[in-house]
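Minimal example, chain plus zinc ion.
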Amino acid sequence: MADSIYIADCAFGKGVFAARPIRRGETILRYRGPRIDRDDPVHHTPGAAMLLQTGVSTYILPDSPAVLVNHSCVPNAGLVDNRRLVAISDILPGEQVTFDYSTSMDDGIWTMACGCGEAECRGLVEDFRHLPERLRNRYLALGIVQGFIARQYRQRPDAAAGFADAAIA
Ligand SMILES: [Zn+2]
């Protein structure tokens, strides 16, 4: 495991925490693990919570410690290149490392009740398409949306209009 993180107990079981200051833009860890397909029965068990969607019908079951990274509706990290977890803000020692699971979700199968405790908590973790448009655009601009999802927004003419509206407002 990288020297920048450690595993500890938290409200959701176990989580990944910063062992030292982690700077915005720094790679925290990489997701690796066996491939799981969309028709695998695990999607209909509690184990589905451990999967990371990497394509339209492909997932991986990440190894530790990546599998222990929890969701937050106000994350301090995000996934780039489908597998690499990068800090999107400076993270202090002892702070839990989180990403927004919705940035990797577009399957119409799995949702999760959220108890992250943030004022902005959405209450339910669901597919990227259900995020408020402002948040979708923020994550897309940061480059922390899985490629198979981000592509859909680049191809849609109305996505460009959404960015233009945001710039005026
Ligand atoms: Zn939440």
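Residues 73, 114, 116, 118, 121-122 surround zinc ion (CB under 6 Å). The helical segments are 133-142, 147-155, 157-168.
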